[in-house]
Amino acid sequence: MTIAPQRVVTLHYVLSDAEGRVLDDSRARHKPLEYLHGHGNILAGLEDALAERAVGDQSSVTLSPAEAYGERDEALVREVGRDAFSVSDLEPGMRFQTPGDDGPEIVTVLETRDDSVLIDTNHPLAGQSLTYRVEVLDIRDATRAELAKGHPLPPGTTPDEVEDKKMV
């Protein structure tokens, strides 16, 4: 069986930046990645590179910033009032997840001022070329419930536990 739409893929990966620094390693975390191919669960460039791979295949793919998390946009660096944060002891480098127009977004604190905070809403990896080294561990057909939800579900999930997004 090969990787194709409507299949659940399990893989290990090592994510590195252009300088070769490891940013994430699923094997080191003892947690392989599981995703539903063709449903936008992972970066499109990575998904394209994995198509037609089989269990045991190992490969490396480098994504440009545009193929990964986009180019940096300095318009996404802005000043907001301190009252936008529920935490009083803010420090540069702190990250928060907030609701955004297109879903959750990560906000990074760049600088704190008396009454305001300079934040960056670019993805933390925006503007970077990224290399994924992957090993395909498993491929299986998705269940009807997984197709309805658009992502893999925990083993043993019953159909009555799943709300069909097509029916809502």
From TrEMBL:
Protein name: Peptidyl-prolyl cis-trans isomerase
Main location: cytoplasm
Cited InterPro entries: PPIase_dom_sf (IPR046357), PPIase_FKBP_dom (IPR001179)
Family: Belongs to the FKBP-type PPIase family.
Keywords linked to the UniProt accession: Chaperone, Cytoplasm, Isomerase, Rotamase
Disordered: annotated segments: 147-168
Function comment: Also involved in hydrogenase metallocenter assembly, probably by participating in the nickel insertion step. This function in hydrogenase biosynthesis requires chaperone activity and the presence of the metal-binding domain, but not PPIase activity.
Pfam families in UniProt: FKBP_C
Subcellular location(s) per record: Cytoplasm
Limits of the PPIase FKBP-type domain: 6-91
Reaction catalysed by this enzyme: [protein]-peptidylproline (omega=180) = [protein]-peptidylproline (omega=0)
Organism (species): Halomonas caseinilytica
GO molecular function: peptidyl-prolyl cis-trans isomerase activity
Cellular-component GO terms for this entry: cytoplasm
A Gene Ontology biological process term: protein refolding
Enzyme Commission code(s) on record: 5.2.1.8
